[in-house]
Amino acid sequence: MEKIIIFDSTLRDGEQSPGASLNTKQKLEIAQQLSVLGVDVIEAGFPIASEGDFEAVSLVAKKVKGPVICGLARALKKDIDVCFDAVKHSKRRRIHTFLATSPIHMKYKLKMSQDQVFQAAIDAVRYAKNKTDDVEFSPEDAARSEIDFLCRIVEGVIDAGATAVNIPDTVGYSVPSEFGQIISKLYSRVPNIHRAVISVHCHNDLGLATSNSLSAIINGARQVECTINGLGERAGNASLEEIVMSLYVRKNFFNVYTDIKTSEISKTSKLVSSLTGMVIQPNKAIVGSNAFAHEAGIHQHGVLAKATTYEIMTPQSIGLKSSELVLGKHSGRHAFEKKVKELGFRLAQKEFEKAFNDFKALADKKKNIYDEDIEAIVENEISREKQIYELESIFITSGSAVRPLAKIKLRKDGKFFSAEASGDGPVDSAYKAIEEIIAQRFKLIDYSLKSVSIGKDAVGEAMVKVEYKGMVYLGRGTSTDVIEASVKAFLSAINRILRNIKGRD
Ligand SMILES: [Zn+2]
Fold it and tell me: Cα(219) to centroid of ligand 1, in Å?
C-alpha cells in the first residue's frame, strides 16, 4: 500500500477563513496538536503577509518537531527570502511558492504572458532551491488552466528542482471525474513527473473538495492539502478528517494509507474550533456533534444489536469518548497536571499555575468537573493576551417585573473605573455599562452561548463578534455564570480592538 502525505493548511488557508484569526500562541498550540495527530507537513503561514504571520511561522519552526514546516511565498525573491527566514529554524523546512497559470488570472491579475509566467515560475523554484532542498510549487487556479500549458509548467518546475507540485482547484470549480482526469493527464504527459510528489489542494465552493481530492488520489496524487474542520477561504478547503477517514474506512477500495493517528481527530477538531471561534455544524461529517447520533428507533435498535448495522466507523476511532466524571474540589495539583497532559495540552509553568488557580476557583462553584471544563480553562489560558481592561466585578439586577440594571467595575493599569447602565435585559445592560466606561460604541454582530459540559452547573462559554471600523473581532469568555461569561467575551473582543488601534499608532 502506498502512503498519502497529509499536508495541513489550517494555520495558513484555514486562518484565512473570514472571522477566524489566531494569535501566535494559539497557532503554536494548534501546530503542536497537529504534530501529535501525525500530519506530515504543516503549512504554518504566509510569512511576508504580516509581521504576526512571520513570527508565528518562525515560532512553529523553532518549537514543533516531527512534521515538515512549510511557509507560503509568491514567486518573488523577497517573498522567498522572508519565507526562508521564518522556516529556517526547522530541520525539516519547505518553501511553497506559487504563481497563477489560468488564462483569466494571467490576463487580469498578473498581466503576464504564458512565457513570462513560465520563466517566473522556474526562476522562483531555482531561487528557493538554493535555500532549501524541499521546494513545492503550485500553479494557482490549475483546475481552470489550459492542460498543455499546465503540463509544460509542471515539467519545467520539476526540472528546476521542485520536489512537490501541487495542483490546486483554487476556486472550487472542478468536479470529481474532471479533476481526476487532470491528474491522470499529467501522469501520462509529463515525462519527469515521477521525480516529484503530485499534490492537490481543493476548495469547497460546490461542496466537492473532499470528492475532488479523493478522485485525484485514485488518479495518482500522493499528497493532499487539507484543513481541520474544512476551514479556509470562502466555503473552505477539503477537510482533513473527511479525507483521512474516507481512506481509513474504505482502505480496501483506495489501497493507500496515511500516518494520521485517527484517535486524535476529535480533540484536534475541538481545539481548532474553540481557538478560531468557528463553530462546527452539527451534521458535519466525522466531527459534527450528530455524526454518531442515531435518532430513529429502528436505527437505535439496530446499533444496539450490532453497531455495524448503521455505523461504518466507531466513535472511538476518532477519539470520541463520552463525558467522564473526572476531578472535583479535593483533586490536587498532580491529578490536575495529569489530566491536562492527558487532554493533550502543554503548558508553561506560569500558565499551569494560573490554570490550576482557575480550576480551584471552579471547583468551589461546581461539584463535578468534566474534561470539557478543564479544556475550557486551559484554552482560556492559551488564548489569553495582554488585557487592557480587566473585569473587576459585576452586579446585575434583572427579572420579569424590574428594569434590568448592570453595575460594572473594570481595572486598567491598576486604576478602577465603574459605570451603571440599563438596557434590554442583563447582557445588554452590562455591555452598555462597559461602553460607558470606555466611552466608545461597538457594534455587536454576533452573540452565542453554549455549555461546555453537562449539568445545570456547567461552565457556559460565550462567543461574540464585534465590528469596529470594518473589521470583525472575536471574543470569548467562560464562567459558570452566563452573564459573567458574556461580559468577559465582550471585553476580550474590545481589548483586541484597543490593542489593534494601539499597535497601529
Ligand atoms: Zn486555498
Answer: 21
**φ and ψ at residue 68, rounded to 5 degrees:** -70, 135
Distance 158 CA to ligand 1 centre (A): 21
Ligand 1 geometric centre to CA of 232 (Å): 7
Report CA-CA distances (Å) from 384 to 130, 279, 341, 351, 496: 40, 20, 19, 10, 11
CA dihedral 497, 502, 504, 505 (to 10 degrees): 150
* Cα of 297 from ligand 1 centre, angstroms: 42
- Residue 502: beta bridge partners? none
CA of residue 198 to ligand 1 center, whole Å: 16
CA of residue 200 to ligand 1 center, whole Å? 10
Residue 74 CA to ligand 1 centre (angstroms)? 13
Output the nine-digit C-alpha cell for 205.
465552493
Pair type for strands 443-451 and 223-226? unpaired
Centre of ligand 1 from the C-alpha of residue 445, in Å? 27
The model's pTM is: 0.83
d(CA 387, ligand 1 centre) in Å: 33
State in Å: Cα 174 to ligand 1 middle: 14
pLDDT tens, position by position, for the chain (505 residues)? 999 999 999 999 999 887 777 889 899 999 999 999 999 999 999 999 999 899 999 999 999 999 999 999 999 999 999 999 999 999 999 999 999 999 999 999 999 999 999 999 999 999 999 999 999 999 999 999 999 999 999 999 999 999 999 999 999 999 999 999 999 999 999 999 999 999 999 999 999 999 999 999 999 999 999 999 999 999 999 999 999 999 999 999 999 999 999 999 998 998 898 888 888 998 999 999 888 887 777 777 787 888 888 889 999 999 987 555 568 888 888 888 888 887 778 888 888 999 999 999 888 888 778 878 888 888 878 777 777 899 999 999 999 889 999 999 999 999 999 999 999 999 999 999 999 999 999 999 999 998 887 778 888 889 899 998 888 888 888 888 999 999 999 998 898 888 877 655 4
CA of 16 to the centre of ligand 1 (A): 9
Q: Which three cell numbers stand for residue 477?
A: 469568555
Spatial separation of the C-alpha atoms in residues 429 and 439, rounded to whole Å: 15
Query: 203: CA distance to ligand 1 center in Å?
Result: 6
Distance between Cα 66 and ligand 1 center (Å): 24
Compute, in angstroms, the gap from residue 190 CA to the centroid of ligand 1: 24
> Alpha carbon of 425 to those of 378, 397, 493: distances in Å?
30, 9, 20
